[in-house]
Amino acid sequence: MAQSVVYADLKFAAGPPSTVADDDDSPYENVPLGPVTAAPSPGRWTRRWRVPTTVLAASLLLLLLLLVAVVALGARYWQVTRSLRDSSREHAAEQGRLSRELQAREQSLEQAQQELAWARGELQRAWHEYNITQVELEFRNAELGHTQHELAVLQAEMQVVQGRLNTSESTVSSLRACVDTDCCPRGWVLFRSKCLYISVTKKTWQESQQDCAEKSAQLLVQ
């Protein structure tokens, strides 16, 4: 390893001429006498330092490496800053899109809630109308049952009346036949081989029985 060598130039003040002979091997050089321009400060010497080439090259190389590192760090910082800026823009755009989607979802949810409330109202109204209709239907069914019962009673009564009408028609037919054949006394009619007397006078049961006894007849009992 090379060692640093320090060179120094020594200057001496003017003085009496030296009587010592010159020595070629002496490392010092005498300065010729002349006027002194400035007096040097006592105890202080002027020195010149010489830096080795190797140290200077190493310093320049280190400075160059530092410069390259600074440039690389600056470029990396610019790339990271740009990436962060792009990420921030993408994040802002994504946040805006999500905000719009959320707002649209909220509007859809609000509309769905309104439609659900309307559907519930319609369902309650329909249920109320169904209950009213059910009550009316039960009332109509009761009326229909009552009407059917009355109709059955009327049909039974009509059958009875129809039977009586048939009997009356048969009686009238027999009476007409008896009148035509003159099989019973005058004023009497023939009915099933029997002569009947039909009174047009309203009498009680006792009076009718007495009247029949006077005519040698019996009171007809259905």
From TrEMBL:
The chain crosses the membrane at residues 55-75. Residues 95-122 form a coiled coil. GO terms for cellular component: plasma membrane. Keywords: Coiled coil, Membrane, Transmembrane, Transmembrane helix. It comes from the Eukaryota. InterPro entries: C-type_lectin-like/link_sf (IPR016186), CD72 (IPR039689), CTDL_fold (IPR016187). Signal peptide: none annotated. GO terms for molecular function: transmembrane signaling receptor activity. This is CD72 protein.
